[in-house]
Design brief:
Keywords: Lyase. The protein is an alpha+beta fold. Helix content is 24%, strand content 44%. Helix 1 packs antiparallel against helix 2. The relative contact order is 0.19.
Length: 169
């Protein structure tokens, strides 16, 4: 059986732009530890399935506030010494309907723990861990705005030890 390329026939350009902008705002919300930015792009509920990349993050459905509180907590991305950069590569639309779009992104999630420094502009990295994944995001249309309603990454490979980077506060 040959690979069948999915070309959505009902994807309007404004929806494409909205999805790209929403995904970037989501990544920036993680990296800048910005709860308001995350709140703007996450739906009232978000289903998270990280089982393919982490034994510590269970498959779970969160309301918006609980998701932001957990993922920006000091134990995860809110760790004050943890710097992250989530880079999104090309996207692949897996399905499109008037109320739901499923997109898979190529993603590099870079994580670094910086050492305390007396110089505010000089951040030296102590430990690093980079994860290469395919990140599947499910979007739902709420009040004419696209919101992220699901996350499901699958790991390609990882360099470094994420637990070592996040571990110390």
């Amino acid at each position: 059986m040959a690979f069948q390329l999915y070309i959505p026939k009902n994807l309007e350009f404004r929806d494409y732009i909205a999805i790209v902008q929403t995904a970037r705002a989501f990544a920036d919300g993680y990296d800048k530890k910005d709860a308001l930015r995350l709140c703007a792009v996450i739906g009232p509920q978000i289903e998270v399935d990280y089982r393919l990349v982490s034994d510590t993050i269970l498959s779970k459905t969160y309301n918006q506030e609980d998701f932001i509180a957990e993922f920006l907590s000091p134990e995860l991305l809110g760790n004050r010494r943890l710097l992250t950069q989530h880079l999104l590569g090309q996207c692949y639309f897996k399905s499109v309907s008037p109320s739901e779009i499923v997109v898979q992104w190529q993603q590099i999630a870079g994580h670094g723990r910086w050492m305390e420094s007396s110089h505010p502009l000089k951040k030296q990295v102590d430990k690093t861990s980079d994860g290469r994944t395919y990140m599947e995001q499910r979007y739902t249309k709420i009040d004419e705005c696209w919101k992220i309603a699901g996350l499901k990454p699958s790991m390609l490979y990882e360099s470094g030890e994420f637990e070592d980077v996040v571990g110390e506060q």
